[in-house]
Design a protein that fits this description.
alpha+beta, 82 residues, Mth169, Chain: A
């Protein structure tokens, strides 16, 4: 099963990359009120079912992929071949 994890800074946490992008976009004439920069992690996970995949990916996020103090994450699951 494929899992996509989107990790980004929590609201209220300083995001200097996002601020730089927002400033540059505004300088180019785009009306951008905010920009948040995060990262996407695509995983192929072997497990018995979707619940097991989600549980494994949650543990991955908590232990390595995200810093829960300053980052939030979202998990999206898809069947292989979808």
């Amino acid at each position: 099963m494929k899992a996509t994890v989107v990790v980004r800074p929590k609201q209220g946490i300083l995001d200097p990359q996002g601020e730089a992008v927002q400033g540059s976009l505004r300088h180019l004439g785009f009306a951008v009120d905010a920009a948040r920069i995060g990262r996407v992690v695509d995983l192929d996970v072997e497990a018995a079912d979707a619940a097991d995949v989600r549980a494994q990916v949650e543990r991955m996020c908590e232990q390595l992929l995200a810093n829960p103090l300053i980052e939030s994450y979202e998990i999206d699951l898809q069947e292989n071949g979808a």
